[in-house]
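Schema walk-through. Below, the input block comes first and the output block second. Nothing else is stored per chain. Lengths vary across the set, and this one has 75 residues.
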Amino acid sequence: MLIERGLRVMNIDVVGRAYDIAANYLRRTGAIADTSATYDPLLELIVQMFHRGETNPIKLANKAISIFEAAKMAA
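--- output ---
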């Protein structure tokens, strides 16, 4: 499904799959709470990368996990 947001078009399926992959991994490792609620910082990170041109859900998820874990270690 494509949704128009201003001048940009976002493929919800790609972003959703990437979020599911990343969130499941981060929940299993204990990095984020194990709830059914959407973790907005992770979703925003994936959407930003999608808008920069990455459309592969696995690459999006892996990059988001790497950035998220690096930020956790730096804190």
